[in-house]
Amino acid sequence: MIEGVSFVRRVPHGVPLEAGRNKKPDNRLARARRDAAGLAFAALTALILFATAENCLAQTDITVPPLDSAEAARVRIWVPVSHQNGCRMTITILNDSGRVVRHLLDRLVSAGFFNYYWDKKDDTGGFVQAGEYTYLVDDCGTKRQGIVTAQFREWERDSRVQLLSQYGTVKVELELFRDSALVSLDVYNRRGNRVAGPIADSLMLHGRHELEWRPPKSALRGRYLLKLTVGDFAHTIEVNYRP
Length: 243
Hints:
Elements: H1 17-22, H2 27-59, H3 70-73, E1 76-81, E2 87-94, E3 100-109, E4 112-117, E5 131-139, E6 142-150, E7 159-165, E8 170-176, E9 181-188, E10 194-204, E11 207-213, E12 222-230, E13 233-241
Antiparallel strand pairs: 1-4, 2-3, 2-5, 5-6, 7-8, 8-11, 9-10, 9-12, 12-13
């Protein structure tokens, strides 16, 4: 029984209930009635499911950001925008002396929830000093601020990764600024499943190294995520693979 919905057995107009139970209707008429009943039930089910989903969305607390890892949460800037019309949003990062070190965002947005992650770099592309920074958000005239924290793993600033090619053989360049680190390369599809591991715990020295992933002929074109682990830090690169 679905709350708020009652089901009533119907018989042909003008036929007593007992007669309606015993009479065998014409096969074509019976099929038509079954088809109509099936369509009505499908429509009712869709309506109930839609109302339930709408109710769940209406009860969602939009003031609470979604769950994230502790490391990601330290550099996350979560912005709920309620304005229906498109408007301009800017995000800037300031150091402890109030100087802007990064203009992170300047774009038009509409209503929705937005997750931005600061890469702990300034406007020149270099890493900032470790510590706490203030972010300022201005979306459609609504101003807010918060704290992001720059913490670094050992190899985060001592290695650099650059995508060289995503057609045919996928190539990335890894540069190590000091000796030496264990390096692994893993490939994940868009569903998050690991599909390849061309490099596993390879000891690499100071300098530049070209790494490759040669997809098999059965590999589908589309988006993949490369996870390049250097020591205690994992670089991630999204590639749009084309055979």
